[in-house]
Amino acid sequence: MKISSTLSLVSLLGSTLLMVAGCMAESVDSASDVDIETDEEVGTAADAITNGWTAETSDGWAPVACDSGNAMSAFHCSGSDCDNIKGYCSSLGTYNTSTYWTSYFSEENTNYRRCNYGDFVTGLACTGSYCDNVSLQCSHLNGKTWGSCYWSGFISEENGGSIYFPPGYYIAGAKCSGDHCDNMAFYYCQAI
User: Fold this and answer.
1) Euclidean distance between the first and the last CA atom of the chain, given in angstroms as a whole number
2) What is the pLDDT of residue 127?
3) Which residues in the chain land under pLDDT 50?
4) What is the pLDDT of residue 36?
5) How far is CA 120 from the centre of its chain?
6) DSSP assignment, residue 47?
7) What residue range is the signal peptide (predicted)?
C-alpha cells in the first residue's frame, strides 16, 4: 500500500513569541505553504510476520522456519542439485500448539518423511554436501487437521525449482531422489 503524507507547519496559538538563540520569531497564525510529500512502500504488521518466503537454507546454514500459525504452501530450490532451499509461509489464522523436527532423510536410505497426522511443515533444515540430508520442522496448528492429501511430482532446479500448492493446501511431508536429494516431491494436504 502507498502512503502519501503532507507535513504542514504547525501554527502556534495566540501571539506567543518564540525565543531561539537570542533571536525573536513571531508566532505563526496559519498553515505554511511548506509541504513535504513522501511515497513509501509499506505493508501491514500482519504482512510482515505472516505471508512470505523464508530465507534460504543449505548445508552448513541455519534452519529456516515460519512464524507461529503459518505453514508452508510453496517450495523453491536453486543451485547445483537443488542445493539452496526455502519455503513460502502462509497464515492459517491460528497458532502452533507443538513443534518438532523429523529425522533427516536422503535418497540413500528411507527417502521421505511425513509430519504426524494432522500436522504441517513449518520449517526446513539440511546437512551434507549439496543439502543431501533434509529435515522437516512440523507443527500442530490449533484447530487444524488434514483434509484431502496428495503427493506432488518431483521438482528440481533443472525444471525451475518451484512448486506452489492450491489455496488451502500446505506441505505435510517430502521425499527426494537423485544425487544429493536433487529431486524433491511433497505430500500436501488441505487444512480443515
Assistant:
1) 31
2) 96
3) 1-49
4) 38
5) 15
6) H
7) 1-25
pTM above 0.85, yes or no: no
Judgement on whether residues 66 and 130 belong to the same structural domain of the protein: yes
3-state secondary structure of 108: coil
36 and 66, same domain (yes or no): no
Q: Is 129 helix (H, G, I), strand (E, B) or coil?
A: helix
pLDDT of residue 101: 98
| Domain identity same for 99 and 119 | yes
Cell numbers given for 86: 526455502
Q: Are residues 72 and 13 in the same domain?
A: no
Rounded Cα distance between 11 and 13, Å, is 6
pLDDT in tens, 89-106: 999 999 999 999 999 999
Taken in order 21, 25, 30, 34, the sign of the CA dihedral is negative
H or E, element range at 46: helix 45-49
Tell me the per-residue pLDDT of 33-47, one tens digit each, with 9 for 90 and over: 434 343 434 333 333
Same domain flag for 36 and 109: no
Domain with 9, as residue range(s), is 2-41
Cell reading at 167: 489455496
Number of structural domains (the chain) is: 2
Question: pLDDT at position 46, please?
Answer: 37
